[in-house]
TrEMBL record:
GO terms for cellular component: early endosome; endosome membrane; Golgi apparatus; plasma membrane; synaptic vesicle. Its main location: membrane. The chain crosses the membrane at residues 55-75, 140-162, 182-202, 214-230, 242-266, 319-341, 353-372, 428-447. Residues 567-631, 664-721 form the CBS domain. It comes from Cyprinus carpio. This is Chloride channel protein.
């Protein structure tokens, strides 16, 4: 009996924390496709199956877009309501946030649009008045208590139910998309807990955003919905195409920027991005943005809180401050990455890491205590950015727009006269300077804690404050909001090193097509400056800190080493563990598996010749032998294992042989021992290999795995080679 006439369940799958074999997965999918195409010519039913198979990818994208859009809408609405809950409550209905509460009130005046009888602050409810020191202390206390409660719930839920739900998730998603398997990272528990705790973390007033985690949430949706379709459930490479599209959906709903989302997936997170995935990402991002627009979470028909429209032109001279903002963004990005990685390394290596709940509570308490007195840090970061992006019109009641009223005889709609800054503008500038220092320092310790935390919004806030500060009173700026927008882009670019996608996200966000050049100038300057100060973006730095096996495609390999310098076994090591094609018994193979921890074994003609036949995965070998012992009569420890095409005649009374040619890879990738390492690294990157065998004159010499390459690269950069071992 040939065991593999019928497929053995489990063969061809992967264990946790292993890398997938892209070449094998793609060829599996091509075989499946060929089979469907051949059958479709035979009957109408088969033709229908073939059509539904072709359509399933688009249907899956539709479902991912709908699900992610709906979740994002829910997160936006809940986070706004809970953020306002820290300051007071609506008597009309508990479920109204501050703005919605005052919408239908007739007693709201234009100057004090935030005050309406239906909205009561906690001091008014408890003490009965909102004035005086006692009321202020009461409001302060309630603000801090709510913040602590929200953050405590967030960190407790993450710790108890889904440890993978913390952080932003983008470094891990980059690693998963490059072919690594982290089971449960995109599972239903992670999705549920991440969605709930994201709302709690954002509402607690911590210096974090929801944009990065929304990419993780969208990828969880993609992964869960993949299980509805056999084509994606059984093929890891196909599933990663869906996850690439889901990452685009995440950014699409986070910023209301569908095209920016597709470009973000292409530029920042994806490893393998064929044209078909580009179209599907585009479709999924469109569906998600449409879903979010129909939910209308902010009640202003916009997909984000800080949508603005600028129409005044910019002047060529203004490019100088824009470039200076770019330099500031690059310096801040490089400083932030260094400081944050140093802090996260401290967390990993000292006792600090043993107390995640305490750490979150302490950071929340410090944030809330320092944030409340300053109105710019008290409001949610999205509202702060919205206020900074906002341009001053005659009807604005913001402190930043408190310019002295000049008596004007004839006001034309587009020509506002120059007005001197009022006292509130100077106060606002002081408060913003303090807010800038506060945000810069607190974000360093917040990012990487055990709660869902994104980095886009805090980075943009730092840049927007810096940009608005440029346009200080007295400076003859054209559009203060434009400087805030350029500063936000520069800082975000400095931290993440995004370029094209960032510019597109920013102009989709603001509808300012005429400001593409300023944005491009600032983003590019920011990237150059940040790259000069440190090569890695924040996500690559976190991937390296966590030791994920990720081969960065942007990094050049410039060393003149050869395959023989990297391959194992080294000269001092024991010889390579191999299996012969027809000379080993079940017992010998099982003891080889028990004594070693390798994830696969080369198959050779004989120990003497060392001529290569193929390669067999450890997991497939274990499953096939177990399956044979259960289902094939007479298989015992003494049974011979054959990887040959034909089994030679067996001596009488010998136990039946085991034929395992079906699980062997007959075309493993091989290089000669004198192949330059830069070529080997390129082969690994472009084909997504797990391992590559090294030969000399046709004889097998050794093996190079992805981890060997990462260790070698670390060694060449004078880093600890063991730092890449994923813990």
């Amino acid at each position: 009996m040939d065991l593999l006439d019928e497929p053995v369940p489990g063969v061809g799958t992967y264990e946790d924390f292993n890398t997938i074999d892209w070449v094998r997965e793609k060829s599996k999918d091509r075989d499946r496709h060929r089979e469907i195409a051949t059958k479709s010519k035979e009957s109408t039913l088969a033709l229908m199956k073939s059509i539904s198979d072709a359509f399933s990818g688009w249907l899956l994208m539709l479902l991912v877009g709908l699900m992610a859009g709906a979740l994002a809408g829910g997160i936006d609405i809940s986070a706004r309501w809970m953020t306002d809950l820290k300051e007071g409550v609506c008597l009309n209905g508990l479920w109204f946030n501050h703005e919605h509460c005052c919408w239908n009130s007739n007693k709201t005046t234009f100057q004090e649009r935030d005050k309406c009888p239906n909205w009561k602050s906690w001091a008014e409810l408890i003490v009965g008045t909102n004035d005086g020191p006692f009321a202020y202390i009461m409001n302060y206390l309630m603000y801090v208590c709510w913040a602590l409660l929200f953050s405590f719930l967030a960190v407790s839920l993450v710790r108890a139910f889904a440890p993978y739900a913390c952080g932003s998730g983008i470094p891990e998603i980059k690693t998963i998309l490059s072919g690594f398997i982290i089971r449960g990272y995109l599972g239903k528990w992670t999705l549920m807990i991440k969605t709930i705790t994201l709302v709690l973390a954002v509402s607690s007033g911590l210096s974090l955003g929801k944009e990065g985690p929304l990419v993780h949430v969208a990828c969880c949706c993609g992964n869960i919905l993949c299980h509805l379709f056999t084509k994606y459930r059984r093929n890891e490479a196909k599933r990663r195409e869906v996850l690439s599209a889901a990452a685009a959906v995440g950014v699409s709903v986070a910023f209301g920027a569908p095209i920016g989302g597709v470009l973000f997936s292409l530029e920042e997170v994806s490893y393998y991005f064929p044209l078909k995935t580009l179209w599907r990402s585009f479709f999924a991002a469109l569906v998600a943005a449409f879903t979010l627009r129909s939910i209308n979470p902010f009640g202003n028909s916009r997909l984000v809180l800080f949508y603005v429209e600028f129409h005044s032109p910019w002047h060529l001279l203004e490019l100088i401050p824009f470039i200076l903002l770019g330099i500031f963004g690059g310096i801040w990005g490089a400083f932030f990455i260094r400081a944050n990685i140093a802090w996260c390394r401290r967390r990993k290596t000292t006792r600090l890491g043993h107390y995640p709940v305490l750490e979150v509570l302490v950071v929340t308490a410090v944030t809330a205590l320092l944030a409340f007195p300053n109105s710019y840090t008290r409001m949610s970061t999205s509202e702060l950015i919205s206020e900074l992006f906002n341009d001053c019109g005659l009807l604005d009641s913001s402190q930043l727009c408190n310019y002295a009223n000049v008596s004007v005889t004839k006001i034309s709609s587009d020509a506002l006269p120059d007005r001197p800054a009022g006292p509130d503008v100077y106060t606002a500038m002081w408060q913003l300077s303090l807010a800038l220092v506060f945000k810069m320092l607190i974000t360093v310790v917040t990012f990487g804690m055990k709660v869902p935390s994104g980095l886009f919004i805090p980075s943009m806030a730092v840049g927007a404050i810096a940009g608005r500060g440029w346009c200080s009173p007295g400076a003859d700026c054209i559009t203060p909001g434009l400087y805030a927008m350029v500063g936000a882009a520069a800082c975000l670019g400095g931290v993440t090193r995004m370029t094209v996608s960032l510019v597109v996200i920013m102009f989709e966000l603001t509808g300012g097509l005429e400001y593409i050049v300023p944005l491009m100038a600032a983003t590019m300057t920011s990237k150059w400056v940040a790259d000069a100060l440190g090569r890695e973006g924040i996500y690559e730095a976190h991937i390296r800190l966590n030791g994920y096996p990720f081969l960065e495609s942007k990094e050049e390999f410039s060393h003149k080493t050869l395959a023989m310098d990297v391959m194992r076994p080294r000269r001092s090591d024991p010889p390579l563990s191999v299996i012969t094609q027809d000379g080993m018994s079940v017992e010998e193979v099982e003891s080889l598996i028990a004594e070693t921890s390798y994830s696969g074994f080369p198959v050779v003609v004989s120990h003497e010749s060392q001529r290569l036949v193929g390669f067999v995965q450890r997991r497939d070998l274990v499953i096939s032998i177990e399956n044979a012992r259960k289902r094939q009569e007479g298989v015992v420890s003494a049974s011979r294992i054959f990887f040959t095409e034909y089994t030679p005649p067996q001596p009488p009374n010998s136990p039946p042989p085991l034929k395992l040619r079906g699980i062997m890879d007959l075309s493993p990738f091989t290089v000669t021992d004198h192949t330059a390492m830069d070529i080997v690294v390129d082969i690994f990157r472009k084909l997504g290999l797990r391992q590559c065998l090294v030969t000399h004159n046709g004889r097998l010499l050794g093996i190079i795995t992805k981890k060997d390459i990462l260790k070698h690269m670390a060694q060449m950069a004078n880093r600890d080679p063991d730092s890449i071992l994923f813990n």
